Amino acid sequence: MMLQNTRGGLVVWFSMLLGLLFQLMPVPEVVDASRPDWLLLIMIYWAMALPHRYNILTAWVLGTVLDVLLGGYLGIRSLTFSLVIYVIVLNYQKLRNFSIWQQALIIAFLLLLYHLLIYWMQFVIFRSEFQVQQLLPVLSGTVIWPWIYWLLRRLRRRYKVK
Prior knowledge:
Blueprint lengths: L1 H23 L4 H4 L5 H12 L6 H15 L5 H15 L1 H6 L2 H27 L9 H23 L4
């Protein structure tokens, strides 16, 4: 029994580590503009599936790690990750009952919120200009959500993560 709980937790943390690596992996400039927010999408799935284990604190810690690794201002991604996961945790029972396409639309809205909040904070700090390219990850994240959901759900069932 103890081994299954440990293994289940390791599966979750391994998937988050993989999301972090996909987020940091160097890719060509053309692809980088539309790179999905892998770590956030994986955190959304686990917060929706197991909100009592992976919630706002997890989002805060992983957002801080991502800020440090990307060399950005400390706290920008932690705050935005936490806000998105807060919305997920508050509504996880409703989200579970939606079809995958309805979930994808809600995920699109949350990704849009995430990117607009990051832009707003960067505007306040750096006076950066808005570019439509900054919203390309919203589109790619929405398109990739059904596959992430399917893969992580399959992993959760196979390893009996609870």
